[in-house]
User: Fold these one by one.
Assistant:
Number 1:
Amino acid sequence: MSTITIHLKNKEEETLMENLLKKMKISFEKNEDDFELTDEMKKVIDKRKAKNHKEFTPARDFLKKMKKNHGI
C-alpha cells in the first residue's frame, strides 16, 4: 500500500478532500495529531491572558461555558 501526505490550509479544504475521497471510494486516515491554533483562537487566548487575573473562573466552569457557547 502507498502513502500520500496532503497538507491542507484550513477546515474547508479538509472537508472538500474528505468528501472527494469518499465519493471516489478511496480509503484514507486522518492524522489528528497535527493540530494548529487558528488566528482567531490565538486572539481569544491573548485577550483572555490580558484580563485581570483577579477575576478567576474555575476550569470546569470555563469548559462548561465553552461547550454551551461553541459546542466544543
Number 2:
Amino acid sequence: MSSSGGFTGISLAGTWECGACGATGDGWYDAEDGELVLHDEDGQPFAPDEHVCGEG
C-alpha cells in the first residue's frame, strides 16, 4: 500500500495542512518521541500517514 495522500507537512505555527484536499488541523513535532503529533478538525489525534483525502 503506497501512501499517496496529499499531506504536506507541518508549519511553524503549530498547524498542518494537506496540499491535496486543503484539510487542516493542529499539529506539532514531539521532540521526545521524534514524531509528528497531528489532530484532525475534530481534535482527534492521528498519525500523518493515516490522513486520507476526502474524509473527515
